[in-house]
Amino acid sequence: MLKTFKIGGVHPAENKFSSGREIEALALPKTAFIPVGQHIGAPAAPVVKKGDKVKTGQVIAQSNGFVSVNIHSSVSGTVKKIDLIPDASGYAKQGIVIDVEGDEWLETIDRSETLVNDFSFTGEEIIQKIKEAGIVGMGGATFPTHVKLVPPKGMKAGLLIINGVECEPYLTSDHRLMLEKADEIVVGTRLLMKALNVEKAVIGIENNKPDAIRLLKEKVAAYPAISITPLKVKYPQGGEKQLIKAVTGKEVPSGALPIAVGCVVSNVGTAFAVYEAVQKNKPLFERVVTVTGKSVKQPSNFKVRIGTPASELLEAAGGLPDDTGKIISGGPMMGKAVTSLEIPVTKGTSGLLLVPGAEARRDGRMACIRCSRCVTACPMGLEPYLLMTASEKQIWERAEKEKVMDCIECGSCSYTCPSSRPLLDYIRLGKGKVGQIIRSRKN
Fold first, then answer.
1. What is the CATH number of the domain that holds 197?
2. Tens of pLDDT, residues 359-399
3. Is the pLDDT of residue 443 over 80?
């Protein structure tokens, strides 16, 4: 029997239209808009100025704290300005604008396709290379990877879990990466194991990707310490806590991190980025992005330079469909609607989803009918209807008591609600406010 997590979960239509489309390198943009805050933690500090010439792979913004990462130029050219640029949240944030002039890479980067298997590095050297390369969680969370690889004092990792679940409907970038870069992902996994000093790794993949499961089983056959675990298809199995539960049966305590049960979880995209950083000296300045939707002419998976405007991805996928009602950065469950096509691709951009107008409109909100579907669907065992009410009424004490901070914002509650209540919207609001209250107590 296939493994999965036990509490909650839903089964949205998969709609993986682009799963059969190979990764295609997108043309360079004329201008790159590179935000300095593409990660959880402190934004990086610019180290270039207007008029400076930069090369592809060069550091243009320096890590500004322990929980922060370097930002590298994804293009070569001239720094046009350092200014506020729009991001997927709708807010303008500091970024570096570069006029593209060719594509001259740093000489230290190995641009060949030859697979490298160099394990002469110590764990500390691997972590340092990851830090210098600006690698973050590529599944969307964008937590700095070098921080995750250094467990808090008194805690030790015993298992590395590589997340190849990609449970969000529509998205296929991880699936294609596993099919086209399996050898590199295995090397990246081994490097992460060495950095963590663990003896065992598991790659979890949902059973709707049988080709990826078969291929990776072949690739890890020579490495008994790495195993492939096929998983039953269920959303949100890509969440760290749900994946740990599915793979190991262990439950991460409320308010705790995966390391509390001896696990560290990294996305397959992160494992690939680690391979490139350690074996090729290549910083993280490009990633695979899915562009898809029911009306998109050519649903695609593009290898895209960070800072490329979304409009250029849409054009390469056949243009903006006439019936588009909403554009979402990410997947339909956890992604966020964007207000402009000029938002740039960042390290956390997994996909662009074009939703037809008829599906983009919400049904009118109705009264809660006490059906408890949201409770049944919640993978964290919470009571979403109660958290929404506490947040709507600004009863922050109650929201905290009912563990609003445990919400992983998967959207399963809103998805199942027959009354079309904006459960997740209010829970997000509550999480933000309760988080502020908790932080103020510590100061």
1. 3.40.50.11540
2. 998 888 999 999 999 999 999 999 999 999 999 999 999 99
3. no
β-sheet with 53-54: strand ranges across: 31-35, 92-100, 77-86, 53-54
Q: What is the pLDDT of residues 279-316, one digit of tens each?
A: 999 999 999 999 999 999 999 999 999 999 999 999 99
Contact 255, 241 (CB under 8 A): no
Number of domains in the chain: 2
Contact 169, 65 (CB under 8 A): no
Both 269 and 395 in a single domain? Answer: no
| Closest by Cα among 136, 131, 221 to 182 | 221
Q: What angle do CA 203, 408, 265 make, to 5 degrees?
A: 25
What DSSP assignment string belongs to 154-169? T----EEEEE----SS
**Residue-range definition of the domain harbouring residue 253:** 123-280
288 to each of 76, 107, 182, 309, 396, how far by Cα in Å?
Answer: 20, 23, 14, 14, 39
**Quick count: other Cβ atoms within 10 Å of Cβ 283?**
28
Cα separation, 334 vs 230, whole angstroms? 23
The Cα 352–Cα 332 span in angstroms is 10
Find all residues with CB under 8 Å of 433, minimum gap 6, and list them: 391, 394, 396, 399
φ and ψ of 234, to 5 deg: -160, 130
Same domain? For 276 and 142 the reply is yes
- Nearest-angstrom CA–CA distance, 15 and 350: 16
